[in-house]
Amino acid sequence: MGARRRVAVLVVAIVAVVLAVVVSLSFGSRPVSVAQIVDGIASWLRGETAADIGAIAVQSRVPRTVLALLAGAALALAGALMQAITRNPLADPGILGVNTGAALAVVIGIAFLGTSSALGYLGLALVGAFVTAFFVYFVGSVGPGGTTPIKLALAGAATTAALSSLVAAILLPRQAVMDEFRYWQIGNVGRADWETMGIVVPVIAVGVVIALLCATSLNALALGDDVAVGLGVHVGRIRLVAAVAGVTLCAAVTAVAGPIGFVGLMVPHAVRLLVGSDQRWLLPLSALGGAVLLTLSDTIGRVIGAPGEVEAGIITAFLGAPVLIAIARRTRLRGM
Questions:
Q1: Cα–Cα distance between 53 and 94 in angstroms, integer?
Q2: Which of 147, 177, 247, 326 is deepest in the core (most CB within 10 A)?
Q3: Transmembrane stretches, by residue range (predicted)?
């Protein structure tokens, strides 16, 4: 893959992010004009409330747009990491159960422990995500042949189904607060606020930095463990560090947006088709692609659900299901 093409893809991705932001601020239950976007953002930067109702709508959309960008980038980056360290084309925070494990921990905290703070959500999500990741890896490594992509995918799917049932069992008897809990069952960015993001953004930033620092070693890992060791890479250490970064990114997003699936599955595959498997390009471009995908998914949900909204997690699942089927068919055919 030529460097010129990769640079072109990078430029297109950056432009796409800008356009996604403009679309997110423009459309919703009430469309606004470019002038109202400028007025709303200018007033927001000055710390003032805009006078025009359209500009006020823009100001209300700024936090959720920022969260959609951050969450999409983190989930896509986590998916790329998981695919790299497991060499599994089906690896994704949702399919491997990490998102659902984090959501279950948060739901348990809300229902039984009285947790209500963003810091409490983050701590519970981290515990749930890491416990689930360890469990899925353990189950996927049991039996002859050790850990294989198919065994990991099956273990993740079974774990996701079991944990989703537990989430539903906790939610159903609590009809009075069903709207509050539904947020942790589907995934949405509509409840974004600056205080919450101020807590999770540093965690996401650390995860992103660690992920990008792992890129060169992950390239060596793709050549096989023996070759990677010959190149001076500590295979076990790099897998552990990359896994911790990926799970941390998933947990941070789940703590503020609930379990949003398929972003980490779709985006790395699309980017890989465009720029190849060089992790130095794949990881940052996946982050940009994930930001675009989730931001547009949130906007689509607001438009088609007006005057309410359809959760972004439903839109990404609707878009991601055909991709999952296509990947599964291709993987099966290769194995025959």
A1: 38
A2: 247
A3: 7-29, 65-82, 94-114, 121-140, 152-173, 194-218, 238-269, 310-328
Measuring CA to CA, which residue among 217, 287, 291 is closest to residue 246? 287
Return the number of other C-beta atoms located less than 10 Å from residue 276's C-beta.
Answer: 14
Gap between the Cα atoms of 7 and 278, Å rounded:
13
The residue count of the chain comes to 336
Q: Tokens 């601020």, residue?
A: 25
Residue 44, both tokens: 């927001």
Averages of pLDDT over each 10 residues, the chain, 336 residues: 84 95 84 77 72 72 91 94 83 83 89 84 92 87 68 83 87 67 73 85 94 91 81 84 92 89 88 89 95 93 81 84 71 43
99 touches 250 (CB < 8 A): yes
- Angle at the Cα of 50 from the Cα atoms of 44 and 52, rounded to 5 degrees: 140
Q: Please state, in angstroms and rounded to a whole number, the distance separating the CA atoms of residues 34 and 153.
A: 45
Q: Per-domain residue ranges for the chain?
A: 3-27+62-335
Q: How would you classify residue 262: left for phi > 0, otherwise alpha for psi between -120 and 50, otherwise beta?
A: left
Residue 292's closest CA among 8, 20, 37?
A: 20
Cis peptide before 307 (omega within 30 of 0): yes
Q: Which of 297, 295, 309 is nearest to 70 (CA)?
A: 295
Query: Please, which residues have CB within 8 angstroms of residue 109's CB and are 6 or more apart in sequence?
Result: 115, 120, 121, 124
Beta-carbon contacts of residue 67 (< 8 Å; ≥ 6 apart): 189, 192, 197, 256, 257
Residues 6+ apart with CB under 8 A from 226: none
